[in-house]
């Protein structure tokens, strides 16, 4: 048995802190914290094998979000300068996007909450690495935009940088390009950005501007709310019912100013509220 494989193992011994499982030759621990359901009445259990924090082979009933050779969306959870970016793959251990495959320009590395379309690679010694999709891979997700998308608001995750700008995949599946002249700062890899469609190409891809419409430039307070929600992938646990002290601590503005800015964004249909939270609309 080795890390990174899926196994059906026999229950060998019950302990207070979990179960020992076996394939008839080797035993591995399935800790209580790695169980997703009770297994008392079973003889066998399906598990995924990984190396625990002490580099011991262990079992989990949790299944990774991504697999070798398959892609899925994962979220960045930590950045380590000399290593790269760790992403959550649904297990108690994260996978690393190594620094040598990240952009050379450090400020555009993903930060916590950014999302990337990745696959997983498992080394011979059981280490989990993630790799974000190339253009060829992510192009399988593209759908063509119609001319009706022109001048509409659109949001998506950045997946590639080039010298002239960056590409992103919209929430609808459109391939978008943001030229450096159409941004105030360069978005991070994996960052959720929102802008306006300024051109629909013949191939169904779009050009997007992150600059505000001159006639619709929003207030600094509304920009602060939009910026905060962008860092949280389009949602925040605040609404017009939130505690004034909480609003002051988070945004540095009064409850009245917050409500005015939020009211404007709701009127423009850029956000909506539900159960005490505020979310980007699909048009944002």
What descriptors fit this protein?
284 residues, mainly beta, OB fold (Dihydrolipoamide Acetyltransferase, E2P), 4 domains, five-stranded mixed β-barrel, five-stranded antiparallel beta sheet, 4 helices, 38% strand
Q: How would you portray this structure in words?
A:
With 284 residues, the protein is mainly β. The chain has four domains: 6-60, Nucleic acid-binding proteins (OB fold (Dihydrolipoamide Acetyltransferase, E2P)), CATH 2.40.50; 72-133, OB fold (Dihydrolipoamide Acetyltransferase, E2P) (Beta Barrel); 144-209, Nucleic acid-binding proteins (OB fold (Dihydrolipoamide Acetyltransferase, E2P), Beta Barrel); 218-280, Arc Repressor Mutant, subunit A. Helices cover 13% and strands 38% of the residues. The chain is built from four helices and 18 strands. The chain has helices spanning 135-138, 220-231, 244-251, 255-267, and strands spanning 6-15, 18-22, 27-31, 44-51, 57-60, 72-80, 84-88, 95-98, 115-122, 128-132, 153-162, 165-170, 175-179, 192-200, 206-209, 235-236, 271-274, 277-280. The strands form four sheets. It has a five-stranded mixed β-barrel. Strand 9 and strand 10 (128-132) form a beta hairpin. The longest helix has 13 residues, at 255-267. It is globular and about 65 Å long. The model has no long low-confidence stretch (mean pLDDT 91).
């Amino acid at each position: 048995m080795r890390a990174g494989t899926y196994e059906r193992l026999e229950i060998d011994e019950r302990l207070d802190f979990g179960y020992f499982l076996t394939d008839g030759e080797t035993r591995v621990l399935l800790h209580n914290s790695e169980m997703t359901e009770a297994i008392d009445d079973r003889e066998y259990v399906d598990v995924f094998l990984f190396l625990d924090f002490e580099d011991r082979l262990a079992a989990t009933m949790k299944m990774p979000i991504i697999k070798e050779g398959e892609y899925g969306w994962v979220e960045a959870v930590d950045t380590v300068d000399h290593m790269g970016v760790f992403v959550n793959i649904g297990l108690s251990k994260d996978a690393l996007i190594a620094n040598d495959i990240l952009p050379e320009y450090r400020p555009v590395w993903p930060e916590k909450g950014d999302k990337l379309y990745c696959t997983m690679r498992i080394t011979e010694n059981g280490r989990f690495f993630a790799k974000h999709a190339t253009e060829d891979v992510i192009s399988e997700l593209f759908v063509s935009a119609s001319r009706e998308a022109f001048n509409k608001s659109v949001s998506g995750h950045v997946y590639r940088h080039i010298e002239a700008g960056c590409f992103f995949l919209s929430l609808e599946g459109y391939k978008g390009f943001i030229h450096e002249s159409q941004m105030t700062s360069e978005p991070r890899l994996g960052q959720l950005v929102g802008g306006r469609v300024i051109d629909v190409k013949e191939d169904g891809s779009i050009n997007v501007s992150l600059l505000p419409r001159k006639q619709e430039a929003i207030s600094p307070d509304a920009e602060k709310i939009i910026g905060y929600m962008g860092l949280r992938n389009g949602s925040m646990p605040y609404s017009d019912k939130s505690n004034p002290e909480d609003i002051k601590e988070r945004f540095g503005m009064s409850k009245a100013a917050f409500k005015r800015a939020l009211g404007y964004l709701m009127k423009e249909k850029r956000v909506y509220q539900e159960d005490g939270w505020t979310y980007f609309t699909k048009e944002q």
